[in-house]
Amino acid sequence: MNKEFKIEGMSCNHCVMAVQKNLAKMNLREFKVEIGSAKVEFDENKINEELITKAIEDAGFIVIK
Q: Which terminus of the chain faces fewer neighbouring Cβ atoms within 10 Å, N or C?
């Protein structure tokens, strides 16, 4: 499954790196983080959107739903 998460509160490359660090710990097929968004490809049988949202929020940002 492919999903784009809109993220509030990101303003610099340090923010991007914080989200990347958390997503890298997960069992994702692929991801790309930019200021304001994260595009994620994942196997919905192994991981769900709520876990990805939590990883982004644990980096200190807000996922816009």
A: C
**Global pTM?**
0.95
Alpha helix (H) ranges present in the chain? 13-24, 49-58
Output the domain CATH number for residue 30.
3.30.70.100
pLDDT at residue 54 greater than cutoff 90: yes
Q: Are 44 and 29 in contact (CB under 8 A)?
A: no
Q: Tell me which residue range forms the domain holding 9.
A: 2-64
Residue 48: C-alpha distances to residues 3, 25, 36, 58 (Å): 11, 14, 20, 16
DSSP 3-state of 26: coil
